[in-house]
Design brief:
With 242 residues, the chain is an alpha/beta fold. It has helices spanning 2-15, 62-75, 97-109, 135-141, 143-146, 151-163, 182-195, 199-207, 216-232; strands spanning 31-36, 46-51, 85-90, 114-118, 170-175. Helix 3 links the parallel strand 3 and strand 4 (114-118).
């Protein structure tokens, strides 16, 4: 059932022009998110970044992407590894298959460079402010049962990926098309989950990527995740919109 909801939402959002595609990879939209030491402590840290679609003129501009990520890490006081394995963590949906095929083909032809992972991300049509208590609390606590993107599960998956021990460091790059909406939803949730940011501070980062704010559907999903934290483990959180 959740898969059907996700596909329907995906179609509705795309037809509504919510997915603001970027013409090409834009270094200005790249942000360093976190450096995570593997649990066993024996290897160099794995790195997490966010940005927009890493495609320019129908190709994956590897050198440009890596140079941009390296600069972003150094600006935040982190060293970018000389040897690494790139993990493209895409949030694209099936309607964006042309861009997805570019990435799939690149990593198919360059398996030693990295790999492609796709987490279809669509946001939520209904926001927490549209639901009154006590229903809002009930929905937030049971978010994994109804939310297509299942953000609590995705945060656990990110933790497992980042905390794992690999032969060489992993560089994870979260993106959608514009690096703004679905990327903001996923990254914003991670800011709360792993970096203990407030909802308002995390939303401010999301809204700083472009000259517009994050889409309402992505904001809805992100805000639902905040309420999930508030009603389950972090009662101190303020999840109201600024």
């Amino acid at each position: 059932m959740k898969c059907i909801v996700a596909l329907v939402a995906c179609a509705l959002l795309s037809l509504g022009f919510v997915h603001m595609a970027s013409a090409s990879f834009d270094p200005k939209r790249v942000r360093f998110i976190n450096s995570v030491q593997p649990k066993d402590g024996t290897k160099a840290p794995n790195l997490l970044f966010r940005g927009n679609l890493p495609v320019t003129n129908g190709t994956f501009p590897l050198d440009t992407v890596i140079a941009t990520l390296s600069n972003a890490a150094q600006e935040q006081g982190h060293q970018f590894p000389k040897q690494f394995y790139f993990v493209d963590l895409s949030l694209l949906d099936p309607l964006e298959f042309k861009d997805e095929l570019v990435l799939i083909e690149f990593f198919k032809n360059n398996p030693n460079v990295g790999k492609y992972i796709n987490w279809i991300t669509v946001g939520d049509l209904i926001g927490p402010s549209m639901v009154l208590q006590p229903k809002r609390e009930k929905m937030a606590k049971n978010i994994s049962a109804w939310q297509p993107d299942n953000l609590p599960e995705k945060m656990n998956m990110l933790d497992n990926l980042l905390e794992a021990t690999y032969d060489i460091p992993r560089v994870f790059y979260i993106h959608c098309e514009a690096g703004m909406d679905r990327t903001g939803e996923m990254s914003g949730s991670y800011y709360l989950h792993a970096l203990n940011m407030t909802f308002k501070d995390a939303l401010a980062i999301d809204n700083s990527i472009e000259t517009r704010n994050i889409s309402i559907y992505s904001q809805n999903a992100f805000q639902w995740y905040c309420y999930y934290l508030q009603y389950t483990t972090e009662a101190w959180r303020d999840c109201t919109l600024p």
